[in-house]
Amino acid sequence: MSRGVPAVEDEEEVPGSEQSVSAPVTQEEPERELTHEEFDPKGTLALILTYFAVLAIMWVFMYFVEFLGNDLIVVG
Amino acid sequence: MSVDQETFADRYPQEAELVRRAFLVAFTALGLGALFGIFQALHRTNVLRIIPSTDYYTALTAHGVLLAIVFTIFYLVGLYQWAVTRSLDRSPTNINFTRAWLTLMTVGSAITGVTILLGFVDQIGISADVLFTFYAPLQAHPLFYTGLVVFIIGTWLAGVDWFRTWLHWKQDNPDERIPLQTFMVLTTMIMWYIATIGVAIAVLFFLLPWSLGLIDTVNPLLTRTLFWFFGHPVVYFWLLPAYMLWYTVLPKLAGGRLFSDPLARVVFVLFVLLSTPVGIHHQYVDPGIAEGFKFIAMTNTMFLLLPSLLTAFTVVASMEHGARQRGGEGLFGWLTALPWRDPAFTGMALAGLMFAAGGFSGMINAGMNINYLIHNTLWVPGHFHLTVGTAVALTMMAGTYWLWPQLTNRRLYSRPIGLLQVVMWFGGMALMSNSMHVAGLYGVPRRTAEPQYAGFDFNTAFGSMAELNIQLAVGGTLLFVSTLLFLGNLTLSLGNPKVEGLGQSLPEPLSGAEDSPRVLDNMRLWAGIALVLVVLAYVLPLGAIIQNGGLFGTGGDAYPVSVLGTFDGLDAVLELLGVGR
Amino acid sequence: MHIHQYEKLWLGMSLLLIVGFIATITYGAVGVGVTMIDDSGGNVDPNALDEHPEFSDPGVEKVGENEYEAYVVARQFIFQPDPIVVPANSTVTFYVTSADVVHGFSVVGTNANTMVIPGEVAEVTVEVGEPGEYGIVCHEYCGAGHHSMEGMLRVVPEGEYNSSDGGEQ
Ligand code: HEM
Ligand SMILES: [Cu+2]
Ligand SMILES: [Cu+2]
């Protein structure tokens, strides 16, 4: 993926540690490298399960209360 | 850093110039569109009125076309030109061809744009107050449709250009996987070719000849159905550039790596397959289309949620990866380790958050029968200002903060202003979109210039219409100010001195392309299946519409919005140039 | 192709969500009996509504025990008839068509909501309850006067309903 604008290959550095050009200069560099095996997106799972719960609850509310509870249901 | 990194502008100066040119058109449209946006927000809430309500629809047409078509698609072609060149490390096969399609797109947009804006000047008699959906039998001036055709041909040629560059690259690299960004570009364009069949037929065979007086009538349900054949996939044409930024740039900004390249490919393939055979979901309450077809469109639409739900996971996981590499800990504590002071990062993250909310209102829209509740109410613009108006637009602006320095070799004028700008957009949109959703549930229609009706009042469950109107007006104002900050920041950046070392690399994904089956890169296969699905979804409904209403409808007049009525195309052109008549 | 187990879990849950949505909607259609506007209304020539047996004189008529049909014409920038008067606690079928451009027909604050497309007749059947008044709006842009296009649905007590009411303009 880094093709095109070649990266400076520096074995010591954490991949992706190069600062974003839009970041403040004082931004701290990543301090460690995590490979696919070492990384379990636990936080992501927690967030997304919360999202799932919100979606499910809101859907039930919108469908059964707001929609089916509304006047003049179209029946034909 | 020991060696200063080459930027895109250093390595590809000509291409960088074209990308800047595309962005220039995009941002001009953004500025104008935002001006009409605040005007609408203040007018339809009766806070401030500068022009009569009858001209509201000229503004609304301009707002829709400039933002949903010109801004988004010019940004797309700029971004995609950058992405193809960068990820293949290769110039276009013939840069003059690239120039040509960009010029064609610009000319087309200018023709359509000017035709719309002439609607403000009654004396000229030219108008295109038909909104960006141009439903017949309202009839725009022929130049409106002509510009559209020219613009779309330009986008087709852009796709040709990118496919050609890729094919040449493939000859040189026969065994390599398609680089992810190029993969995204190619799949998006396959979708676009399929999608535009609908609008091309509607405009070329029906609306344009009809506006020129060559045919007398059209079938309004048919042209409308052809529009929505195009109208749903176009929303993915807006979204996929944002997805490209989320998948390939956001992980870098977060200080991590993309979680999964294979899944990103799967997601884009799913969009190719599913984004077109669903357009009838915009016509759930249209007469003349059998319920069975609506049900099929509904199930397809629901499955189209899948790629976006998968994206949510992959993108958030890539951010979490960055946060953890930055030392973030805990189940939610890592969120604080993200680079929130980088406007590019924060803009994209907030855009993603709003997309999650917009996803929910989209699920309601998609829900066939529940669509009765919200169809054509203000809920709908409430929904799509979260999706195209924020998930896409804010991501594009945020992406610009990161791309612009690499395209110009100049630093951004002010990073804190950038940060303020993205946060202000988020806040403004939260207010505007919330009030629109709620007002929609109370039955307030979209696309109207007036906040109230003579014969009845809207019943509010809590709060009052006045409060909702204030919320909408304040939100719209914040959005407008945010747009000005964005444009101002970019303009002032041009005054910064040129420096070296602004180049950026993109990190390799955690799970790379080699983990995915090669069949994913088979473009012909996906295009073929997508076409079959479209045929299955559309042949019967279109056939029924033509059989019942006739190819050219059951009769009925045209309703030109131009005062002059129908006349031939040459006259129209001469008139615009100020010659003749 | 290896996929992280959390991702597999999320894939499963996403599919569950999708199937859940489809199931809810199917329940609404089959269980509750919500039907969609479809092609049952047939086609008309928008320029020949004057000669149409029903649309030439838009209004409400009684067609059965407690069943009424309301023929409504939408045109720039009015609904005919206005108001539409129907008796309480009845079944009303609206037949709505356009004499000119695309319009919308939405009984404000209710689920009765349809597009009105020239050449097509929208057929919408609803159960009307207690007496009351509802606004009707055109919710599709139909020209420079679109924002003034409104109507009224008046639900009157059974006893007060007079068959000539709905036909009045
Ligand atoms: C300055 C920021 C913005 C403001 C204040 C604003 C405001 C509005 C308002 C109030 C409406 C509703 C008009 C009505 O239905 O009567 C509207 C419609 C719309 N907006 Fe925006 N908007 C903004 C930005 C955007 C952006 C960034 C996009 C897309 C990229 C967008 C796309 C649209 C579209 C497609 C419509 C519908 C037009 C139609 O119904 O034909 N807007 N906008
Ligand atoms: Cu859609
Ligand atoms: Cu209207």
TrEMBL record, chain A:
The organism of origin for this protein: Haloarchaeobius iranensis
Name assigned to this protein: Uncharacterized protein
Top-level taxon: Archaea
Alphabetical keyword list: Membrane, Transmembrane, Transmembrane helix
Residue spans crossing the bilayer: 45-65
Annotated region (Disordered), positions in chain: 1-37
From TrEMBL, chain B:
An annotated Gene Ontology molecular function: heme binding
Keywords, alphabetical: Electron transport, Heme, Iron, Membrane, Metal-binding, Respiratory chain, Transmembrane, Transmembrane helix, Transport
Top-level division of the source organism's lineage: Archaea
Topology in the lipid bilayer: Multi-pass membrane protein
Keyword Transcription: no
GO-annotated biological processes: aerobic respiration
Residue ranges crossing the lipid bilayer per the database entry: 21-42, 62-80, 101-121, 141-163, 183-207, 227-250, 262-280, 292-316, 344-364, 384-404, 416-436, 468-488, 525-546
Chief localization: membrane
Localization terms from the record: Membrane
Signal peptide: none
Domain Cytochrome oxidase subunit I profile: 23-520
GO cellular component terms attached to this protein's record: membrane
Keyword Chaperone appears in the UniProt entry: no
Family in the record: Belongs to the heme-copper respiratory oxidase family.
Name the record gives this protein: Cytochrome c oxidase subunit 1
Organism: Haloarchaeobius iranensis
UniProtKB/TrEMBL annotation, chain C:
Superkingdom per UniProt: Archaea
UniProt-annotated location(s): Cell envelope
Transmembrane segments: 9-30
Residue ranges constituting the Cytochrome oxidase subunit II copper A binding domain according to the UniProt record: 55-167
InterPro entries the UniProt entry points to: Ba3_CcO_II_C (IPR034214), CcO_II-like_C (IPR002429), Copper_CuA (IPR001505), Cupredoxin (IPR008972), NosZ/Cyto_c_oxidase_sub2 (IPR051403)
One annotated GO molecular function: cytochrome-c oxidase activity
GO cellular component, one term: membrane
Alphabetized UniProt keyword annotations: Copper, Membrane, Metal-binding, Transmembrane, Transmembrane helix
Major subcellular location class: other
CDD domains: ba3_CcO_II_C
Classification via Pfam families: COX2
Keyword Transmembrane helix carried by entry: yes
Gene3D superfamilies linked to this entry: Cupredoxins - blue copper proteins
Name of protein: Cytochrome c oxidase subunit 2
Upper taxonomic lineage: Archaea, Methanobacteriati, Methanobacteriota, Stenosarchaea group, Halobacteria
